[in-house]
Amino acid sequence: MTAWLGFLVVFLCSWSLRDLVVEACTCVPIHPQDAFCNSDIVIRAKVVGKKLMKDGPFGTMRYTVKQMKMYKGFQIMPHVQYIYTEASESLCGVKLEVNKYQYLITGRVYEGKVYTGLCNWYEKWDRLTLSQRKGLNHRYHLGCSCKIRPCYYLPCFATSKNECIWTDMLSNFGHSGYQAKHYACIQRVEGYCSWYRGWAPPDKTIINATDP
């Protein structure tokens, strides 16, 4: 009986710990432009190897990448060879496939290492829209001084001239909404920010001409 009670206690404690860890990774939805602006490093890369490092209680996964292009971070780290992430998805670790896809990867730099996770923006390159690819190349950085404010319930109003209201929150989350896929929040004349979508570089003399 004593042995059974001991097993039960250990089982319940393990179950509670597992539930706690599984629920530990919760990310606030973020527009791709904000993900770009808030990241130290933004690259397009192919994963060519991986290794489990014995860091922390669950380990850290080190991905070896072949960098195809860098969109942000030249001054910090001109070339990225390794990407680090938590080994456990419950701790926001990212699972990337080796020798299969090219990925867009955003991350932060700590002590000379690039870290990414589920709360960062990462995606298979062929799933990005043309607008998102153009945003990475030259649009998103034009709006890093703008503020994208999520709208969860109507009505929503901009409270300052540098705000764009992100209405994807009414029906979608994260990067899957229409604005996230096709719009960038660009600073226009006199400091105003507004949504922009188009094939040519934005005309910064026009205000609110292409709001969604």
Automatic annotation (TrEMBL):
Biological-process GO terms, alphabetical: negative regulation of membrane protein ectodomain proteolysis; response to cytokine; response to hormone
UniProt keyword list: Disulfide bond, Extracellular matrix, Metal-binding, Metalloenzyme inhibitor, Metalloprotease inhibitor, Protease inhibitor, Secreted, Signal, Zinc
Segments forming domain NTR: 25-144
Location relative to the cell: Secreted, Extracellular space, Extracellular matrix
GO molecular function term, any single one: protease binding
Keyword hit for Secreted: yes
InterPro entries: Netrin_domain, TIMP, TIMP-like_OB-fold, TIMP_C, TIMP_CS
Cysteine pairings via disulfide bonds: 25-92, 27-119, 37-144, 146-193, 151-156, 164-185
Amino acids binding Zn(2+): 25
Stored PROSITE patterns: NTR (PS50189), TIMP (PS00288)
Domain of life: Eukaryota
Cellular component, GO, one term: extracellular space
Signal peptide: 1-24
Family as reported in the entry's similarity comment: Belongs to the protease inhibitor I35 (TIMP) family.
Protein name stated in the entry: Metalloproteinase inhibitor 3
Lineage: Eukaryota, Metazoa, Chordata, Craniata, Vertebrata
